[in-house]
Structures are given as structure tokens and as C-alpha cells.
Amino acid sequence: MAGSQFTSYFNSLFALPTARQAISFRRLAIGIEAMLRDKLNEAMKDAMRARETVALGTIRLILAKLKEVDIASRTESNREGVPDDRILSMMQGMIKQRHESVVLYEKGNRADLADKEKAEIAIIERFLPKQMDDAAVAAAVRDAIAAAGATSVKDMGGVMAALKTKYAGQMDFAKASATVKKALAG
Predict the structure, then answer these.
(1) To 5 degrees, how large is the angle CA 90–CA 92–CA 93?
(2) Are residues 45 and 115 in the same domain?
(3) Are residue 89 and residue 117 in the same domain, yes or no?
(4) Quick one: which of 136, 165, 171, 176 has the fewest CB in 10 Å?
(5) What does the pLDDT look like over 95-127, one tens digit per residue?
């Protein structure tokens, strides 16, 4: 083998992966099929192609808020973005804010603004997992209380932490908190 052919062969064997290859390898190594960030970026591109202005604006708001949360959670040792469960919690908060705005707009006889907020809620909900009904929330609360060994309201923090870890984005934690408090108090 000639010197230049050997060098070329050697470089092809031990070359560093491109950024795209590294990202795809990272997803395979972690076992994540499609991360929520990727779904949001693809939805933004689809909304651009379809010229859906409301969807595009809402997805851009989600991505801007996500960038803000990423920056706020950065440390010297961790430059990665926040995990999907934190993104789901962030989107739950965005929905909660919009529900509050809808109530205020309806009180102020601003149906046009209330309708805009409702449309944004519908778009954000597309990225959330299916929400649990009241019976499923009650069952999850019972399981979390049993798993944590909670006996009084003082143990509520541990139960809520377990619920947030396991059911991020799937339940309204304000309602779950009331259910936990009722179960532990009574």
C-alpha cells in the first residue's frame, strides 16, 4: 500500500464522526427514538411549509421558552439542555398561564383574545402525552402513597416528587396535590 493510500485508509477508519452522525449515535446510545425537541423543531418546519401562522407562532413561543429554561439551568459541568420531563412541565405551565388569560379575557369581554389563547392551548397540547382522567390520577396517587410509605401530610412532598417524576406532562399536579392532601389527611 502506498503512503498516501495508507493515510487515507487510516483516516477513514479512525475519523471522528460528523456532528450529524454524533447526534444520531447519541440518540441510539441513549435509546431515545424522537426527543421532544426534535418533534417541536419538525412541527415548526411543517407549520412554515403549511403557512399555519398560529401554529408557527405558538411553536416559536414554546421554543423560545425552552431556550430560556435551558440557559437558566446551565452549569459549568452541564451544558446539555433540560430533559423531556422538564420540557413537559414547562409546557404544562404555559397551558396554565393561557387558561388564566382566557378567564381574564372572557371577563373583559375580549372573545377575540380568548379564542387566540384557546388556539394556542390546543397547539401546545399536541405535544403533551394524553392527560390522565380523575380515576387514573386517584389510582396513581394511591400507588405513589403506598410506594413512598406516606402516612401523613408531612410526607406529601415525597409523594408529589414521585408523581412528577413518573407522570410528567400527563396530569394536572394542582389537582393531584389536592388529591394527595385529601388522601393523607383522611
Answers:
(1) 65
(2) yes
(3) yes
(4) 165
(5) 999 999 999 999 999 999 999 999 999 999 999
Q: How many helical (H) and strand (E) elements, i.e. helices and strands, does the chain have?
A: 9, 0
Grid coordinates of 142: 394511591
Burial 144-156 (b: 16+ CB within 10 A, else e): bbeebebeeeeeb
- Polymer length in residues for the chain: 186
- Domain presence at residue 5: no
Domain membership of residue 163 (yes or no) is yes
CA 105/CA 43 separation, integer angstroms: 28
Q: Are residues 124 and 135 in the same domain?
A: no
Query: Domain check: are 56 and 115 in the same one?
Result: yes
Give the separation between CA 183 and CA 135, rounded to whole angstroms.
14
Which string of b and e fits 37-69 if b means at least 16 CB within 10 Å? eeebeebbeebeeeeeeebbebbeebeeebeeb
Say if 173 falls within a structural domain. yes
Collapsed DSSP state (helix, strand, coil) of residue 179? helix
Q: What is the pLDDT of residues 12-49, one digit of tens each?
A: 555 555 555 555 444 444 444 458 899 999 999 999 99
Q: Encode 71-84: b = buried (16+ Cβ within 10 Å), e = exposed.
A: eeeeeeeeeebbee
